[in-house]
Amino acid sequence: MPVVELNKEMSASKHLDSVVLGAGCFWGSEKRYAAIAGVVDAVSGYAGGEGVRPEYREIIKRSNKRNPKNHAEVVKVTFNTSLTSVETIIKNYFEGHDPTQLNRQGNDIGTQYRSVIFTNTEDQKLTAYEVLNEYQKRLSTSNYGKITTLIQPLIEFFPAESYHQDYLAKNPNGYCPDHSTGVKFDPSQSIVQVDNSKLLTGKHILVIESENYCPYCEKFKKDVVADYSGKTPISYRLAPQLQNLKIKTPTWATPTILFLKDGKEVYGKQGYMSAELFYKVLKKFEES
Q: Each residue of 174-204: b (16+ CB within 10 Å) or e?
């Protein structure tokens, strides 16, 4: 290898660092971290366990569901320190899930889903606590409870099985889990409440999308909305923007497609909805 190329690789490696983050199911988290400018790799895996094999079939066993020594589902985030910082990544981490939930995120319940940050230096540890304390103040102002996130030194990271890596890309007809609180470090980026009065009269289709990048939302827009031929208007909202609407379907998955009549849900579908199923439901909805 030429000396110039070798020097470039050595220089680049000097700027690389990593942090391991647990925020519930690692499938959606992996994609979110990978989208941060400066992140060069995001790998799903396991960490923090003792006496439990770091394998998916082991950590999901009923006997390990409440085992405090179970591994957590985590993502190892490798980033270029000249382009982003561990502080930025940890802020994204807190904003991307509900850290006040203990050993769960939504319907995913068990110690494998615990909120945890595994650090590899003392500086990372101090930064993690500083960010946590700042976010606690903002959560408390918004009437959320105490953060349950653990901050621990990383002993060892175990990459998950190959079928878990890039899971969303390998499973094109699913959903992105979103358990975020909507509370932001930067108040100017807080989710704006919208006027839903127009949705309270007549028939409407409401698509709940992700505040972050969601491949299933984009796929739905491309496959269904781009060539939409129905009469019922389609609107978009984030999960915290559903005031005054009567919704039955849980809204933690994106996309979630809701068919509303006079502000009340008639039919709801979590996750990607194929054009075939969408138009089948739409036909019955518009004829009813």
A: bbbbbbbbebbbeeeeebeeeebeebeeebb
pLDDT band at residue 178 using 50, 70 and 90 as cut-offs? confident
What is the reported pLDDT for 183?
A: 92
Give yes or no for a contact between 78 and 124, defined as CB atoms under 8 angstroms apart.
Answer: no
| pLDDT of 24 strictly over 60 | yes
Task: Show which residues are catalytic.
Answer: 25
**CATH code for position 92:** 3.30.1060.10
205 and 123 in a common domain = no
| pLDDT for res 177 | 83
**Would you tell me how many other CB atoms lie within 10 Å of the CB of residue 172?**
10
What domain range is 213 assigned to? 197-287
Number of domains in the chain: 2
Cβ(115)–Cβ(44) below 8 Å: no
- The percentage of residues in the chain with a pLDDT greater than 70, rounded to a whole number, is 94
Distance of alpha carbon 26 from alpha carbon 113, whole angstroms:
9
Residue at 184 is within a domain: no
pLDDT in tens, 182-235: 899 998 887 788 999 999 999 999 999 988 778 889 999 999 999 999 999 999
